[in-house]
Amino acid sequence: MVVLNPNNWHWVDKNTLPWTKEYMNGAFDNWAIESGDNKYVVKSVSSVAGDSNVSQRKGKVICYFDLQLEFDVSVAAAAGDGEEICHGTVSIPEFIHDESDFEIRYSGFEEHEADVRRCFAPKLVAELLKYQSALVAEHSKDVQNGQ
């Protein structure tokens, strides 16, 4: 998308939600980590909804997003046959561009929820925080003219 916008003065917006859905599925589908005695696997990204945009105003590229994310997660024994211990959902109701400490909800993990919170969630958050720089890198060229 090339935009006629002298001196990059006017607002230019690009809806990046379709790309975001592809990014989340590509980054997290079957994403796995091992911690302690368990292996945690994102079986699927079951929902990506909300808003995601890259914009330009007065020559400056900015992004803003407010996403609702849901991950289908399996917990299995790291050793042996890797038999599934439990299965549940990790939901992030507000993944927002200007926050790194966001609410995470857990369901279905029963007595293993504490392990999911302690071992899996911090690594998931670290991976999610890479999204913003990937978003800007991928789409900034589409909202700039001659820079």
UniProtKB/TrEMBL annotation:
A single GO molecular function term of this UniProt record: protein-folding chaperone binding
Domain Activator of Hsp90 ATPase AHSA1-like N-terminal residues, every copy: 13-141
GO biological process: protein folding
GO terms for cellular component: cytosol
InterPro entries hit by this protein: Aha1, AHSA1-like_N
Transmembrane segment boundaries: none
Domain of life (superkingdom): Eukaryota
Family that this chain belongs to: Belongs to the AHA1 family.
Name of this protein: AFR347Cp
Organism listed in the record: Eremothecium gossypii (strain ATCC 10895 / CBS 109.51 / FGSC 9923 / NRRL Y-1056) (Yeast)
